[in-house]
Sequence to fold (144 residues):
Amino acid sequence: MIAWTIILLALAGGAIVLQNAVMLEARSLSGSALVALWLNSAVGLVVLTVAALSTDGPQAFAKLSEGRWWMLLLPGLLGTFYVYASLTGYARVGATLTISGLVAAQVLAGLGFDLMRGTGLAPLQGLGVVLLVAGVVLVFGASP
Fold:
Protein backbone atom coordinates (compact mmCIF):
# COMPACT_ATOMS: atom_id res chain seq x y z
CA MET A 1 0.00 0.00 0.00
CA ILE A 2 2.80 2.42 0.84
CA ALA A 3 4.61 1.65 -2.44
CA TRP A 4 1.48 2.51 -4.45
CA THR A 5 1.07 5.73 -2.50
CA ILE A 6 4.67 6.71 -3.23
CA ILE A 7 4.15 5.94 -6.93
CA LEU A 8 0.95 8.03 -6.90
CA LEU A 9 2.78 10.94 -5.25
CA ALA A 10 5.67 10.70 -7.72
CA LEU A 11 3.27 10.73 -10.67
CA ALA A 12 1.39 13.69 -9.19
CA GLY A 13 4.66 15.56 -8.69
CA GLY A 14 5.53 15.09 -12.34
CA ALA A 15 1.99 16.00 -13.38
CA ILE A 16 2.22 19.31 -11.49
CA VAL A 17 5.31 20.27 -13.49
CA LEU A 18 3.55 19.43 -16.75
CA GLN A 19 0.35 21.19 -15.64
CA ASN A 20 2.20 24.38 -14.80
CA ALA A 21 4.13 24.30 -18.07
CA VAL A 22 0.89 23.96 -20.05
CA MET A 23 -0.81 26.65 -17.95
CA LEU A 24 2.15 28.95 -18.58
CA GLU A 25 1.53 28.47 -22.30
CA ALA A 26 -2.19 29.19 -21.79
CA ARG A 27 -1.21 32.32 -19.89
CA SER A 28 1.05 33.40 -22.77
CA LEU A 29 -1.63 32.77 -25.39
CA SER A 30 -4.44 34.48 -23.48
CA GLY A 31 -2.30 37.18 -21.89
CA SER A 32 -3.94 36.47 -18.55
CA ALA A 33 -3.01 34.34 -15.55
CA LEU A 34 -6.67 34.41 -14.52
CA VAL A 35 -7.78 32.84 -17.80
CA ALA A 36 -5.20 30.07 -17.32
CA LEU A 37 -6.51 29.53 -13.76
CA TRP A 38 -10.08 29.49 -15.05
CA LEU A 39 -9.17 26.85 -17.63
CA ASN A 40 -7.60 24.69 -14.92
CA SER A 41 -10.61 25.04 -12.63
CA ALA A 42 -13.30 24.67 -15.30
CA VAL A 43 -11.92 21.42 -16.71
CA GLY A 44 -11.28 20.08 -13.24
CA LEU A 45 -14.80 20.96 -12.12
CA VAL A 46 -16.41 19.15 -15.06
CA VAL A 47 -14.25 16.03 -14.65
CA LEU A 48 -14.72 15.89 -10.88
CA THR A 49 -18.48 16.52 -11.09
CA VAL A 50 -18.97 13.63 -13.48
CA ALA A 51 -16.70 11.37 -11.41
CA ALA A 52 -18.35 12.28 -8.09
CA LEU A 53 -21.89 11.91 -9.40
CA SER A 54 -21.17 8.57 -11.04
CA THR A 55 -19.29 7.22 -8.01
CA ASP A 56 -21.01 8.74 -4.98
CA GLY A 57 -24.27 10.12 -6.35
CA PRO A 58 -26.00 13.41 -5.62
CA GLN A 59 -26.53 12.52 -1.96
CA ALA A 60 -22.83 13.10 -1.27
CA PHE A 61 -23.23 16.71 -2.44
CA ALA A 62 -26.38 17.10 -0.34
CA LYS A 63 -24.46 16.06 2.78
CA LEU A 64 -22.19 19.08 2.34
CA SER A 65 -25.03 21.30 3.54
CA GLU A 66 -24.59 19.76 6.99
CA GLY A 67 -21.04 21.15 7.27
CA ARG A 68 -19.72 24.55 8.16
CA TRP A 69 -20.07 27.33 5.55
CA TRP A 70 -16.33 27.93 5.31
CA MET A 71 -15.76 24.28 4.45
CA LEU A 72 -17.50 24.93 1.14
CA LEU A 73 -15.26 27.87 0.20
CA LEU A 74 -11.85 27.37 1.76
CA PRO A 75 -10.58 24.33 -0.20
CA GLY A 76 -11.30 25.98 -3.54
CA LEU A 77 -9.82 29.30 -2.47
CA LEU A 78 -6.67 27.68 -1.11
CA GLY A 79 -6.29 25.45 -4.16
CA THR A 80 -6.72 28.38 -6.52
CA PHE A 81 -4.17 30.39 -4.54
CA TYR A 82 -1.69 27.48 -4.76
CA VAL A 83 -2.13 27.14 -8.52
CA TYR A 84 -1.85 30.92 -8.98
CA ALA A 85 1.35 31.04 -6.91
CA SER A 86 2.78 28.11 -8.88
CA LEU A 87 1.97 29.72 -12.21
CA THR A 88 3.41 33.05 -11.10
CA GLY A 89 6.55 31.35 -9.82
CA TYR A 90 7.06 29.44 -13.07
CA ALA A 91 6.72 32.66 -15.04
CA ARG A 92 9.02 34.74 -12.83
CA VAL A 93 11.69 32.44 -11.40
CA GLY A 94 11.31 29.13 -13.25
CA ALA A 95 10.27 25.64 -12.24
CA THR A 96 13.21 24.73 -9.99
CA LEU A 97 12.92 27.69 -7.63
CA THR A 98 9.14 27.52 -7.60
CA ILE A 99 9.01 23.83 -6.78
CA SER A 100 11.77 24.12 -4.18
CA GLY A 101 9.98 26.90 -2.35
CA LEU A 102 6.61 25.18 -2.52
CA VAL A 103 7.93 21.83 -1.33
CA ALA A 104 9.81 23.36 1.61
CA ALA A 105 6.75 25.38 2.63
CA GLN A 106 4.53 22.30 2.35
CA VAL A 107 6.89 20.17 4.43
CA LEU A 108 7.15 22.83 7.15
CA ALA A 109 3.38 23.38 7.18
CA GLY A 110 2.84 19.62 7.20
CA LEU A 111 5.22 19.30 10.12
CA GLY A 112 3.23 21.91 12.03
CA PHE A 113 -0.03 20.12 11.14
CA ASP A 114 1.31 16.76 12.33
CA LEU A 115 2.64 18.27 15.56
CA MET A 116 -0.74 19.94 16.23
CA ARG A 117 -2.44 16.57 15.75
CA GLY A 118 0.02 14.96 18.14
CA THR A 119 1.52 12.70 15.48
CA GLY A 120 5.03 13.57 16.59
CA LEU A 121 8.27 13.58 14.66
CA ALA A 122 10.86 10.82 14.46
CA PRO A 123 14.51 11.97 14.70
CA LEU A 124 15.28 10.95 11.10
CA GLN A 125 12.21 12.84 9.91
CA GLY A 126 13.49 15.94 11.69
CA LEU A 127 16.88 15.51 10.03
CA GLY A 128 15.13 15.11 6.66
CA VAL A 129 13.23 18.36 7.19
CA VAL A 130 16.44 20.19 8.10
CA LEU A 131 18.24 18.80 5.03
CA LEU A 132 15.31 19.67 2.76
CA VAL A 133 15.23 23.26 3.98
CA ALA A 134 19.02 23.47 3.64
CA GLY A 135 18.71 22.19 0.07
CA VAL A 136 16.13 24.86 -0.73
CA VAL A 137 18.42 27.54 0.70
CA LEU A 138 21.19 26.23 -1.59
CA VAL A 139 18.88 26.21 -4.62
CA PHE A 140 17.76 29.78 -3.95
CA GLY A 141 21.31 30.93 -3.19
CA ALA A 142 22.60 29.48 -6.46
CA SER A 143 19.92 31.16 -8.56
CA PRO A 144 21.07 33.66 -11.17
Summary: DSSP finds six helices and no strands in the chain. The mean pLDDT is 92.
